[in-house]
């Protein structure tokens, strides 16, 4: 029997609004948020029309939707949970599930996001985030509509391997992921997506995750075999782990056909899911028509073929 992975696409921040698509961001409180029922519905419909089963959506990137008082985390902004509820209504209507992402490791280096840095480096902030933000979000997510809950996108960006001080040690990140994961574990599968080359560092730190999520941007596309990942991590158990290709994309100068190999390899290498990077601009146009691009049409044909 042919292996059938979940085929997904990345919708990391909706409407092009990183850090303020779903809720107010206290870093930029005067921005408000960019939520639109109509645009969200159209975006999910576009993903389904191309033949995807799932979408990956970020929730608290750049500390979006996190409420603080006196510098301490006290909860979520009501709009965040409200808009998650509306997204779930649309997911159900389209027959999609979501792979939700809580925090983005890139936000410290790119946006000087001190709150995310504090959550990932300070045990008290980590515990408060787990209790006041992660747990309520997890409770609000319908398990039937949730593929998984990614605790942190690309943790490596916080470490000495990618940034200068004040960096966060891998061991500290693993402890933080454990604290946040324990707040949601049992209700949803938890992960932390990392670029392929940093997987041994993450895995070796012992983060207590339910799944491995690797990110790849290769000119020819393609997913590494399970056996390769196991050797890379020096852990035979990796070969049998729940395995996700959470971001599978191409360098900007490379043509779109190579994306198709990610889909095919997810079948042949028995990945549990693969998520292409990304819907907007790559697979659909960003004008009013929102028509499939040439690459989007190729992906739709490939998904129809692989689905049989």
Tell me the distance between the termini: 12 Å
Strand-and-helix sequence, N→C?
EHEEEHEHHHEHEEHEHEHEH
What is the typical, i.e. mean, pLDDT?
96
Query: Low-confidence spans: pLDDT under 50, at least 5 residues?
Result: none
Estimate the strand proportion: 15-25%
Beta strand count: 11
* Number of separate helices: 10
Summarize the main sheet.
9 strands, parallel
Integer-rounded radius of gyration = 18 Å
| Side-by-side strand order of the widest sheet | 7-6-5-2-1-11-10-9-8
Q: In one word, what is the shape?
A: globular
Give an overview in words.
Helices cover 38% and strands 18% of the residues. By secondary structure, it is an alpha/beta fold. Strands 7-6-5-2-1-11-10-9-8 form a 9-stranded parallel β-sheet. Strands 3-4 form a two-stranded antiparallel ribbon. α1 runs parallel beside α2 and α4 (114-121) packs across α5.
Give the SSE map:
Elements: E1 6-10, H1 37-50, E2 54-58, E3 66-69, E4 72-76, H2 78-94, E5 97-104, H3 106-111, H4 114-121, H5 123-140, E6 146-153, H6 170-184, E7 190-191, E8 194-195, H7 199-204, E9 212-217, H8 226-233, E10 243-249, H9 259-268, E11 273-276, H10 294-307
Parallel strand pairs: 1-2, 1-11, 2-5, 5-6, 6-7, 8-9, 9-10, 10-11
Antiparallel strand pairs: 3-4
């Amino acid at each position: 029997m042919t292996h059938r992975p979940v085929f997904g696409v990345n919708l990391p921040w909706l409407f092009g609004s990183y850090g303020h698509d779903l809720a107010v961001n206290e870093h930029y409180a005067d921005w408000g948020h960019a939520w639109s029922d109509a645009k969200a519905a159209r975006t999910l419909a576009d993903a389904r029309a191309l033949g995807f089963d799932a979408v990956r959506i970020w929730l608290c990137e750049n500390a979006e939707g996190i409420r603080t008082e006196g510098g301490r985390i006290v909860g979520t902004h009501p709009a965040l949970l409200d808009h998650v509820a509306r997204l779930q209504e649309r997911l159900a209507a389209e027959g999609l599930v979501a792979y939700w992402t809580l925090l983005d490791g890139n936000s410290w280096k790119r946006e000087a996001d001190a709150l995310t840095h504090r959550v990932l480096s300070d045990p008290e902030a980590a515990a408060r985030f787990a209790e006041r933000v992660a747990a309520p979000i997890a409770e609000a997510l319908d398990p039937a509509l949730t593929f998984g809950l990614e605790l942190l996108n690309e943790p490596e960006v916080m470490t000495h391997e990618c940034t200068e001080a004040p960096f966060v040690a891998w061991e500290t990140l693993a402890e933080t992921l454990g604290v946040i994961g324990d707040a949601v574990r049992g209700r949803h599968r938890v992960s932390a997506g990392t670029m392929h080359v940093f997987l041994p560092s993450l895995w070796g730190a012992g983060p207590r995750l339910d799944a491995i999520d690797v990110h790849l941007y290769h000119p020819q596309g393609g997913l590494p075999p399970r056996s390769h990942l196991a050797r890379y991590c020096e852990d035979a158990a990796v070969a049998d782990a729940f395995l996700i290709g959470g971001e599978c994309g191409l360098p900007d100068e490379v043509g779109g056909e190579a994306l198709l190999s990610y889909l095919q390899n997810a079948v042949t290498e028995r990945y549990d899911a693969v998520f292409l990077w990304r819907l907007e601009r790559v697979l659909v146009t960003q004008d009013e028509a929102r028509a499939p691009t040439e690459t989007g049409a190729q992906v739709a044909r490939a998904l129809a073929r692989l689905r049989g």
